[in-house]
TrEMBL record:
PANTHER family in UniProt: GLYCOSYLTRANSFERASE (PTHR43685), GLYCOSYLTRANSFERASE EPSE-RELATED (PTHR43685:SF5)
GO MF annotation terms: glycosyltransferase activity
Lineage of source species: Bacteria, Pseudomonadati, Pseudomonadota, Gammaproteobacteria, Oceanospirillales
Keyword Glycosyltransferase among record annotations: yes
EC number in record: 2.4.-.-
Family in the record: Belongs to the glycosyltransferase 2 family.
SUPFAM superfamilies named in the record: Nucleotide-diphospho-sugar transferases (SSF53448)
Residue intervals of the Glycosyltransferase 2-like domain: 5-166
Keyword Iron-sulfur part of the UniProt annotation: no
Keywords per UniProt: Glycosyltransferase, Transferase
Protein name: Glycosyltransferase
Naturally occurring in which organism (per UniProt): Modicisalibacter luteus
Gene3D superfamilies linked: Spore Coat Polysaccharide Biosynthesis Protein SpsA, Chain A
Amino acid sequence: MFCVLLSVYKKEKPEYFHEAFSSIWFNQQLKPDQIVLVKDGPLTPELNAVIMRWKEILGDVITIVNLSKNAGLGAALNAGIKLCKYELIARMDTDDVAFPDRFEKQVSFMIEHPEIAVSSGQIEEWDQGLCKKLYERHLPLKHEDIVIFAKKRSPISHPAVIFRKSAVQEVNGYPKIYPEDFPLWVSMIVAGYKFANLPDFVLKMRVGDALMKRRGRGFLKGEVSVFRHMLRLGFIDKPQFIYNVASRAAVRLSPWFAKKIFYRSFR
């Protein structure tokens, strides 16, 4: 038994939202026993209409959490985790599309490997209309390699992650740092939890130029906060911290054409 956890906010597109839900339910070989959807603040009438449609389809399978104001992804997910009934929680973004065998593969892996607290799979990155595949993101598979990888970059694909509820709660959930997933994985590694990644592609992620354009100066500021978090935990030393900040600044502050080259080269 497992739960799928999502958070939606007002700027998301209703048609992408509906497509994500279809991939979770109609198109999945292994359907979730519970879906927890956090409404991160007031939504548009169009998004609420999609939610009402899925409530009619799913009935008691879906649990809806209403936040009175936009709290951000980390806080919204922490609120949702509390209402997940099952130990295994699979994350999903509300504009991505899961492959039909995603949950069957990931849930089976976690059942067969009780020592693993967090895992994800490989993801394909597509344009906004899911018409053209742009990149593939490949991650290391074994815990030892994941720890090395995590010194510089997030070792888990957040939209495709599955984790054990008790393990995430043991480290107090997502921290108040943006981006919120990377520091959570580091906190769990430092706490002694084991990680893995599947070699299989499990998700189509909408990327396109819009995502890369958002990852500029503001995103760099958040990444520096993540690296400070890693330094405080003793996960990296000061030379590694300086290297991480310098290399990220080179990407985030570069001209648009150079940013596209960096992004293509370091997936």
